[in-house]
Amino acid sequence: MQKRSGILVAICLWLSVRKSLALLPNESDIIDKCILNYGGLTPETAERLGRFKDWSVDYEEIPCFTRCYLADMFDFYNNSTGFDKDAVVKVFGEPVYNACQKKLELPESELSSCQHAYEGFHCITNLENHPFTVIDNMANISQSAKTAMKECLQDVDQAKWKSFAAYGDYPVIEPIPCYTRCFLDKLHLFDQKTRLWKVGAMRQHLGVPAKGAVIRSCHLQRGKDRCATYYKQFTCHALAA
């Protein structure tokens, strides 16, 4: 009974890992293959895979797993030549490649190793959702807007940066208080004299509202304070159809 219970725990953990990692065809089979030499499916292995991003920057907890996984799974990595720049940029974006360049490039005449594969991919996966990387990859956003958004983030406690991703769901309450007001003021998109939004400039810098969108009631949105009002009104412009 105890053995069956242990197997059940392992299966539950592995299903959880697969749910978060196995997004592509054959990925589950490849992961199974790459952990076979390290005890196969066990509760410990499943837990380690589930927290891949938490592994040490330079120490791979499941030896050579990443090299095996990348070589069989993606075109941007080769067991001999390592990471292909153009392919990495295509999948993850140029900002991610530039940030991880030192770990991704191989010195001339050297072959890729387990350590190289791990350090390069570990860097990519930890940077791909970094707020600065997300901002750099935003389409229809001016360079001035990207700079303003980054500057405003630097004024915020980094512990709150993890809430940045929530903006994509347009929640009712702003994920990082006063962040929207900060970058909108830096871009001078609200006319303090007329109390009106500079819609043309907003569209130029941030790509919203869409042309022809009905926004006449957006200025009526109100929050508990000025920051909340900025967020509500900007969100209204962004979602207007």
Automatic annotation (TrEMBL):
Its main location: secreted. SUPFAM superfamilies: Insect pheromone/odorant-binding proteins. One of its GO terms (molecular function) is odorant binding. SMART domains: PhBP. Gene3D superfamilies: Pheromone/general odorant binding protein domain. GO terms for biological process: sensory perception of smell. Pfam families: PBP_GOBP. Residues 1-22 form the signal peptide. One of its GO terms (cellular component) is extracellular space. It comes from the Eukaryota. It is found in: Secreted. InterPro entries: PBP/GOBP, PBP_GOBP_sf. Keywords: Disulfide bond, Secreted, Signal. Belongs to the PBP/GOBP family. PANTHER family: GEO07291P1-RELATED (PTHR11857:SF43), ODORANT BINDING PROTEIN-RELATED (PTHR11857). This is Uncharacterized protein Obp83cd.
